[in-house]
Amino acid sequence: MRRLTAAATAAILVAAGLTATTSPAAAHGDGYSALIQRASYGVPHITARDFASLGYGVGHVQAEDNICTIAETIVTVRAQRARWFGTTGEAAANVTSDLFQQKVIDDQVAERLLTGPRDGVHSPSNEVRDLLRGFAAGYNAHLRRTGAAHLTDPACAGKPWVQPITELDLWRAYWTNMVRAGSAALADGIVAAAPPGRPAPVRPGEITGQLPAPEAAALVAAADGAPAGVGSNAYALGRDATASGAGMVLANPHFPWDGPDRFYRMHLKIPGRYDTEGVALLGDPLIQIGHNGRVAWSHTVSTARRFAWHKLTLVPGDPTSYLHDGKPRKMTARTVTVQTPDGPVSRTLYDTHFGPVVVVPGRFDWTADTAYAISDPNAANNRAFDGWLAMGRARSVADLRAALDRRQFLPWVNVIAADSAGQALYADHSVVPRVTDDLAAACIPAAFRDLYAGSGQAVLDGSRSACELGRDRDAAVPGILGPAHLPTLVRGDYVTNSNDSHWLANPAQPLEGFPRIIGNERTERSLRTRLGVHQVRQRLASTDGLPGTRFTTANLWTVTLGNRAYGGELVRDDLVRSCTADPIATASGGTRVDLTAACTALRGWDLRVDLDSRGSHVFTEFARAGGLRFADRFDPAKPLTTPSRLAVDDPRVRTALADAVQLLDGIPLDARLGDIQTEPRGAERIPIHGGWPEAGVFNMTINVVEPGVGYPKVVHGTSFLMAVELGKSGPSGRQILTYSQSANPNSPWYADQTRLYSGKGWDTVKFTERQLKADPNLVTYRVGERRS
Questions:
Q1: What is the mean pLDDT of residues 774-784?
Q2: pLDDT for residue 208
Q3: Which entry of 232, 375, 613, 616 is annotated as an active-site residue?
Q4: Which CATH architecture has domain 200-224+308-375+440-450?
Q5: Per-residue model confidence (pLDDT) at position 97
Q6: How do 584-586 and 295-301 pair as beta strands?
Q7: Rounded CA separation 611/594 (Å)
Q8: Which of 179, 185, 291, 683 is the most exposed place for a label (fewest CB within 10 A)?
Q9: Rg of the chain on CA atoms, in Å
Q10: pTM attached to this predicted model
């Protein structure tokens, strides 16, 4: 396999017109020049003399491996999805996407991100601008040399939408990622917003009237502000938790396995200035999760809300004007037009001085008296690339924390980090609207106080300037909570997060007293969160069945992929006793179902979601159907062990098991998980372990059952997995990209890491020159050009 991988790499270089070399990166005049060292599994280690050339190398290799995915992202931010991908069926959402993105273009949102002093806080630094300029040039160079007609990925070979890109395209993609949990998540509610009783002039293909806003409604109904389809686990282990006394980090983001949110592994180096290994989202030019020589970090999706609502009191008789401190203010109306296969489509969108007007039918309606707007601080967040650049240069947890405090750039994620001295950090220093307890008490109308208490959604009185977000003295910019209002914890043992709030980052030192908009406190934790903490505690107590004490990167990998189903550990035996005693139950549709085979499968289940686990899918669907109902209450004094007893007398428990049996009709209830849960790679079906969080699984794998077949495709879940230790000789450990480096079925790196992950294997950290040169598959080449 190693020889084949190296040969395939060399073949790609020849096809691309590139020359293999073993010499250092050569000077290229005033042009771009980067040295690419492709290691095992196609992972590029890129060395350049400046940030423009580093960006060029990143853009080039990402285009070599994933040009179709990046090209589609550019289509999106150019507001051309409907034009190229249609409007029928599921593609109907393309029109909404295009209208939203066209308004971004018309309003010159990306251009405004780039105005101001280039200090990395008020506007992006020259280093970051150089990275994006170089990335666009490197991407375009690969496309120019290869030609769209000769691309090997059938997803876009010869397609007219594969075109050269610009820096501005990349900044628009950046902005869209920043507002993913805010404005972009509410895009259909923004496009749907229209004043009542005022027919607009109809143009060809024009959308008129208030539209349904299902995505916005889903976000409003969500328990927290996390973007849909993403999540993560992470550990930062300090000197008191590791065998060596050095810091260690587990990175375990759960992101989509297909599409624009795929991660890409790489190692980026400018000698003496920047040296970081890890992953970035495709299309981004620097490391977002990873490590340098002294610090490692990961991100988990935060529970904080990313926007605040403002309840507008409208001027009588004029539903597009609102009262502010007793004076009328006119909304700004902009008609946006996009092209579709059926002709132009137009829509008038409305803004206030807070931000866009949004409609969520049945919850936030636009009536003759009232409308609702949002303020989204991430819409002005131009600090993130500089923030990640500063993280990559941090020499300690203290340095990293200072970077977080100064820039306040993380759009919707926590950070979990450790350093070589054995300090461990948790911080939710993400961009959060400045809704303090005092502001909430004074400015949230009585009708919305329960909504705020329950979900963190703040609906402020938009008629008073005193109820605007204001500014904390220590905040990087107006309108967001400053560091003093944000939860932070530094310890010598461990911190962890699995997408619950900040409260129990370490149960020995709960984080309490923070504004509700960040997350809930003293409330029930998810089974995944509880298992995550149990795994750490059991390792430190040496009660997990593994040899030795404390953590090494080897046993951290084993613990992470132990594939325990904590919900099954708690209730499986009681569930089996219940269905054995009375094997006939009524499904939610009224059908009587025999539970005998399900009981037998559950009785023999090993309480894990390994490839050889039999019957785990029965428990998964039972849990997903709402069967995990507990007889005991949550006790905030015992947050890791309550609730824990199955409510066997609750009829909904047995109904859920009956529903699971019906759903799995045609699939053997005692099937091996590896036989029914797979990931396609061409004609190959690669068995995949892991499971749903509803069952209490730490190693998350999200997929949808296909009747009579099983789970034939992973939707999202464990994506990048890294266990890294920051030892005296430099970083070491294990890492893998579960879905492999390339989405191109004709790439040699399309399935190799996926097969490796199936067997719980790993690739090693290759940060030092010695580690990299020990790779038997290493192939080196240069990319570059003169700048115009």
A1: 98
A2: 54
A3: 232
A4: Roll (2.30)
A5: 97
A6: unpaired
A7: 27
A8: 683
A9: 26
A10: 0.95
